[in-house]
Specification:
The complex is a heterodimer. Chain A is mainly α. Chain A is 70% helix and 2% strand. Chain A has a two-stranded antiparallel sheet with strand order 1-2. Chain A contains 14 helices and two strands; from the N terminus they run αααααααββααααααα. In chain A, helix 3 crosses helix 9, helix 9 crosses helix 11 and helix 12 packs across helix 13. In chain B, strands 6-9-10-3-11-12 form a six-stranded mixed beta sheet, sandwiched between helices. In chain B, strands 2-1-4-5 form a four-stranded antiparallel beta sheet, with helices on one face. In chain B, strands 7-8 form a two-stranded antiparallel ribbon. In chain B, strand 1 and strand 2 form a beta hairpin. Classes of the chains: A mainly alpha, B alpha/beta. Chains A and B meet through helix 9, helix 10 and helix 14 of A and helix 3, strand 8 and helix 5 of B.
Chain lengths: 351, 297
């Protein structure tokens, strides 16, 4: 290669035809840019109309609201980048909480046994979703809609059959409850402000997911199976394992949130969770994940969840009627999707 | 590391013996239910040679390459690699055995950067255990270097591969196969969607791959692309081989006439028309197309 180094730039060195990208230009190329601009705009807006919004305690509340959506949005974002989506997430969270609660209560066991059992249940739900998707070749919309309905029925039916009520029995007096609550539903005091532990769990999960996505083989495979499944298969990417793994990752996120719900309130309403699956998908879409797959980021999903948290609580701080919240959410979703389409077209277009 | 060991195992089983061809097919056939897609195909691929597979749409070209690339398995006949009979269960097994396919439409994932596409499915990593991460700097460097060696000087390997032209994308896929130690390179109609000039570029890369000692299988329906680069020519029609020639035994005109010639000549006429100027040749090609059209029916 020594002969060519005089004429062609050596690999790795700077090419004179590529202008050094400014930080702004780099940012504009990121999938979550639309969401980031939206988040800043929304933040500024609420800071002006409701000054109490800026108080540290209000911020802790906003972040807590964001985290309960954001924990799921981590998994849902990865799944959407992998080209699928999951409508069963909302009720799967409740299924997980109910499994832990009912098993521990019925057998009078330490709640940690129930927690481990619930993890197994959540991963199994994800595995079954992925496995049926692969075996039947049906769209994930149909497969997960079916599991959404079945889980809704199981949640109600089994809870009544085992516990005899529409809500699970209280487990607050059982062994292990205190330690489990400390992990899944406690608060950390920072500078006199109570911040819920879910905020930290959420941020840790976003960091891990981003690292997996951008810096590991598995991340490369996730982008590939979502971007072009046939091409991925042809170059030897394990498409089946990647997809099933993604559904199981969503299951894991559902377990974390389910455990939070259980130990924050010590009982679970078996009919809850319906409709939440859309909030997670909305967070991911606002965050720049393409519905068609192959594009997006975990940070985007986190920003989407933060926007959700701000809009949800900001309306309360501004002392508006919360009826308007859904309108806000719909508008944000529409704007974000339009921005995403423009970004995708630019990325795909020829020079 | 696991992948490398697997490859060695497969290759150990396929210990090259003297006088064995790199890859041979003998009477290979494939049917989907009661539809016979391919029947009785013989073919030989040698290192440093280009074997062209010609045929019109529906002739069985795709089925043939899918069998060689491990996407489908043959139902009859014998498939040997380095003299050993083999049945490839998946594209991964085929890749590990040194057979790489470059497809016209599904070579790459458009939204992913060039370097990620280059290493997709065979990523380089550093570190151990749960902290094993992609060696991004190395991968970008190798991608740029390998493409430069193929004569493609890219400005930025970070740009989505969808932004490259069709010819450039083909070349990335070819460079990739060469880098990952392919011994057999299958090219599925690499020139079909390209203009005349871009086709010329791809044909040059085919010769470059050949000169590096690869056995190239070049699938095309255009004899004018196949003839200049090919060493032997397999003609398929309706799932059967209708001829298998060495280059010295056939001319481009015979090759054209052997195929369902009309369509190809019409295509040539179309290409000449695009270039402009060549009035006489254009008239000749059009006349030829008209003459051979009845023969093909």
């Amino acid at each position: 290669m020594a002969t060519t180094t005089t004429t062609a730039p050596a690999a790795g060195s700077k090419d004179e035809r590529v202008a050094e990208k400014s930080l702004l230009a780099k940012l504009l190329g990121r999938p979550e840019i639309g969401a980031l601009v939206g988040a800043i705009a929304l933040f500024t807006f609420f800071a002006i109309v409701a000054p109490v919004f800026l108080a540290p305690s209000s911020m802790a509340t906003v972040l807590y609201g964001a985290s309960t959506i954001g924990i799921m949005a981590v998994g849902v974002s990865l799944l959407m980048i992998g080209g699928e989506f999951d409508l069963s997430t909302g009720v799967a969270v409740i299924s997980s909480a109910l499994s832990a609660s009912l098993l521990s209560w019925y057998f009078g066991m330490n709640v940690w046994v129930g927690i481990i059992f619930a993890l197994g249940v959540s991963l199994l739900i994800g595995f079954i979703n992925g496995w049926i998707l692969i075996r039947t070749q049906l769209p994930s919309f149909i497969v997960t809609l079916a599991s959404f309905l079945m889980l809704t029925g199981l949640n109600l039916g089994l809870t009544r059959a085992i516990g005899g009520s529409v809500s699970s029995p209280s487990i607050s007096q059982m062994d292990g409850f205190a330690s489990a609550k400390a992990i899944f539903a406690s608060s950390v005091t920072i500078g006199g402000i109570d911040v819920k532990v879910t905020v930290f769990i959420w941020l840790a999960m976003v960091v891990i997911a981003s690292w997996v996505l951008m810096r590991t083989k598995i991340g490369n495979w996730i982008f590939a199976v979502g971007g072009d499944e046939k091409a991925a298969r042809a170059v030897g990417v394990p498409v089946v394992r990647t997809k099933i793994g993604l559904f199981m990752a969503v299951g894991f996120c559902g377990w974390v949130l389910g455990m939070h719900n259980l130990f924050a309130f010590d009982t679970v309403q078996s009919g809850e969770g319906i409709g939440n699956e859309f909030l997670y998908i909305i967070a991911a879409v606002i965050g720049g994940c393409l519905l068609t797959g192959g594009y997006g980021s975990a940070i985007g999903g986190a920003i989407g969840a933060f926007i959700f948290g701000m809009a949800n609580k900001g309306i309360v701080y501004a002392e508006w009627n919360p009826d308007w919240f859904k309108f806000f959410l719909g508008l944000m979703l529409l704007l974000a999707t339009v921005v995403n389409i423009i970004v995708k077209k630019r990325a795909e277009s020829s020079k | 590391m696991g992948k490398r060991i697997k490859e060695e195992e497969i290759l150990a089983k396929l210990e090259p013996k003297a006088n064995d061809n790199l890859l041979t097919l003998k009477g290979v056939g494939k049917h989907y239910g009661n539809i016979i897609a391919l029947r009785g195909v013989d073919m030989v691929v040698d290192p440093g040679k280009v074997t062209c597979v010609l045929g019109d749409n529906g002739a069985g070209k795709s089925t043939l390459i899918k069998i060689i690339a491990g996407l489908h398995q043959h139902d009859e006949g014998e498939f040997t690699l380095h003299g050993s009979t083999i049945k490839l269960k998946s594209p991964r097994v085929a890749l590990d055995a040194g057979i790489a396919a470059v497809y016209q439409d599904l070579a790459v994932v458009p939204l992913m950067p060039i370097w990620r596409n280059f290493f997709l499915g065979s990523e380089l990593t550093t570190g151990v255990g749960p902290f094993k991460k992609l060696d991004v700097a190395k991968m970008k460097e190798v991608t740029k270097q390998e493409l430069a060696d193929m004569g493609i000087d890219l400005r930025d390997v970070e740009q989505p591969i969808g932004q490259l032209s069709g010819g450039e994308r083909q070349c990335v896929a070819i460079a990739r196969a060469v880098y990952f130690g392919a011994k057999v390179l299958i090219l599925d109609e690499p020139t079909a969607a390209l203009g005349v000039k871009q086709s010329g570029v791809v044909l040059r890369y085919i010769l470059q791959a050949r000169d590096r000692g690869l056995g190239v299988i070049f699938i095309t329906h255009n004899p004018h692309h196949a003839f200049p680069v090919g060493d032997s020519f397999l003609l398929l029609k309706r799932g059967r081989a209708i001829g298998y020639y060495a280059k010295k035994d056939i001319t481009v005109e015979e090759l054209t006439a052997q195929m369902a010639g009309g369509a190809e000549l019409a295509e040539l006429a179309h290409e000449l028309e695009q270039i402009g100027g060549h009035k006489e040749e254009l008239a000749e090609a059009e006349a030829g197309a008209a003459n051979t059209a009845p023969a093909s029916s």
